[in-house]
């Protein structure tokens, strides 16, 4: 569970009770009132600057409110459904921020508070839309603009309000949603948003390039304004419609087409037709595209592959990665399908503006789904192999380092032990754990024999010391081989090529065995054993620091 949120003390309010829910709804609906006040101020400034009367103030503010909520209008019986998207987007952003802030001021908000905030914004917006419809209707004799249909106006207002406040609720509860939604769903949503934003970014760059190449026609259209006010109005209209053009241009990146009345555009062909007299329309192409323009499809393919590759490390299994990629592709397809509804519409006598939604949506689903899933599957397969190789190497190193816990050995004692074992079994050399146990008659012989030929067990202390010595010799001579036997399932080539590790391990093991070997040697000397065989030159190399016998 996520940690409890830190709430500002001055903003603590109990989430229970109808009063608290009403306060939440009112606080979330505050941007609705602020937006209307801003529209009133802007309209007053415009009327004052144009030296016209204030009789049409309320009607103009009502129409502006309908435009903010993307409500289709009629002007002198001519339908205008192709409205700018910039005002609704800014309004939705403000609603999202306010909704998130209101939920943050509540101690432990839940579903009731979130629903209350969304309901408050929606009800307030629909109420103002109804009031705006009445104001426009009352000024119908002097004002030719009004909504095309009241139910449609209320529906669009509710859609914008729910979208804006819903994004705010999601932003606040996204941490809790991470604990509920599976990984592939969360990854698919994030990857789908990345796909959509990448398409819009590429489309925006294309629009900017078109504006730069068509700068002279744009300046010619802006001269229609005949003055600062007219030019500023034309520029403002072009900027307000810029999101519409960007969203429509995204359909071209997946092989779809966009149309403006009789004119149509795609990466394969361009059909000319009558255009509105606005600067942004002058940036649209008028000739068939060059074959280089068709390379935009490759740009989309590369973008899909790069984004899919960048999120491959989010997933542990290929199945989750592929499902997430297809969910992201479905997200792009849905956005492409609703683009003509949101960013298109009827543009008066010019006709319909929009995109071929079904073709573009199908192409987006296939392109992003196939390219993305293939790329992420291959990337995840490579990452899985590298991860498994690293884990195997780490396990191998841990086993090799674990040999330091065994009894350490001395280089001289190691040679003596190998000679003793060779004498016991000249044929085999006693080089393996199995041979050692075969050469020992039974467990009791580990105590060793008396150096003078006596029977085992005559001197208990000597027997114990010799048993320890035999065990140490066994561990010293076979430590490395036993380690290799335990790690046969691991690729030894990676670590056998590291002589530094083997040398360090052997040196450390040799150092700690000195004390135990010397102690055993002194104990045998104290029992008046005969001197070591002069032929064993290695015995003279024993450390001089061995303790002398006091007995």
From TrEMBL:
This is DUF6350 family protein. The keyword Transmembrane applies. InterPro entries: DUF6350 (IPR045931). Keywords: Membrane, Transmembrane, Transmembrane helix. Signal peptide: none annotated. Residues 391-551 are annotated as: Disordered. It comes from Dietzia aerolata. Pfam families: DUF6350. Residues 406-427, 435-466, 488-551 have a biased composition (Acidic residues). It comes from the Bacteria. The chain crosses the membrane at residues 21-42, 48-68, 80-97, 117-140, 152-173, 193-215, 227-254, 291-312, 324-347, 359-381.
């Amino acid at each position: 569970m996520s940690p409890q949120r830190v709430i500002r003390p001055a903003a603590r309010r109990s989430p229970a009770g109808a009063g608290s829910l009403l306060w939440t709804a009112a606080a979330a609906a505050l941007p609705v009132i602020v937006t209307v006040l801003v529209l009133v101020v802007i309209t007053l400034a415009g009327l004052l600057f144009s030296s016209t009367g204030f009789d049409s103030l309320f009607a103009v503010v009502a129409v502006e409110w309908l435009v903010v909520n993307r409500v289709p209008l009629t002007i002198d019986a001519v339908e205008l459904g192709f409205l700018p998207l910039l005002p609704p987007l800014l309004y939705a952003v403000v609603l999202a921020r306010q909704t998130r802030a209101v939920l943050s001021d509540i101690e432990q908000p839940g579903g009731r508070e979130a629903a209350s905030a969304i309901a408050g914004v929606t009800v307030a917006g629909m109420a103002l839309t109804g009031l705006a419809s009445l104001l426009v209707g009352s000024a119908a004799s002097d004002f030719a603009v009004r909504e095309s249909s009241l139910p449609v106006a209320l529906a669009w207002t509710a859609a914008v309000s729910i979208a804006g406040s819903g994004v705010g609720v999601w932003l606040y509860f996204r941490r809790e949603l991470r604990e509920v939604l599976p990984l592939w769903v969360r990854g698919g949503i994030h990857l789908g948003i990345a796909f959509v934003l990448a398409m819009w970014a590429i489309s925006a760059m294309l629009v900017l390039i078109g504006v730069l190449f068509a700068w002279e026609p744009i300046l010619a259209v802006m001269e229609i304004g005949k003055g600062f006010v007219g030019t500023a109005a034309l520029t403002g209209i072009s900027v307000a419609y810029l999101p519409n053009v960007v969203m429509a241009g995204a359909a071209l990146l997946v092989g779809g087409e966009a149309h403006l009345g009789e004119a149509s555009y795609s990466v394969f062909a361009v059909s000319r037709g009558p255009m509105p007299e606005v600067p942004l329309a002058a940036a649209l192409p008028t000739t068939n595209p060059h074959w280089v323009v068709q390379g935009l499809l490759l740009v989309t393919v590369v973008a899909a592959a790069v984004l899919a590759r960048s999120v491959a490390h989010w997933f542990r299994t290929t199945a989750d990665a592929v499902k997430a990629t297809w969910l992201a592709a479905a997200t792009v397809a849905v956005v492409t399908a609703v683009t003509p509804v949101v960013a298109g519409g009827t543009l008066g006598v010019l006709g319909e503006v929009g995109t071929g939604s079904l073709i573009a949506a199908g192409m987006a689903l296939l392109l992003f789904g196939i390219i993305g899933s293939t790329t992420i599957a291959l990337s995840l397969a490579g990452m899985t192999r590298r991860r498994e190789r690293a884990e195997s190497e780490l396990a191998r190193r841990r086993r090799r380092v674990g040999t330091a816990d065994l009894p350490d050995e001395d280089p001289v004692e190691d040679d003596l032990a190998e000679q003793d074992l060779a004498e016991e079994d000249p044929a085999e050399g006693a080089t393996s754990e199995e041979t050692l146990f075969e050469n020992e008659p039974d467990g009791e012989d580990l105590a060793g024999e008396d150096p003078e030929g006596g029977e085992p067990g005559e001197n208990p202390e000597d027997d114990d010391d010799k048993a320890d010595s035999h065990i140490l010799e066994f561990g010293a001579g076979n430590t490395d081989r036993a380690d290799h036997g335990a790690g046969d399932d691991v690729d030894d080539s990676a670590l056998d090529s590291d002589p530094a590790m083997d040398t360090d391990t052997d040196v450390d093991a040799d150092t700690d065995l000195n004390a135990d070997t010397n102690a055993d040697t002194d104990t045998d000397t104290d029992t008046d054993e005969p001197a070591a065989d002069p032929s064993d030159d290695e015995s003279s190399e024993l450390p001089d620091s061995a303790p002398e016998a006091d007995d």
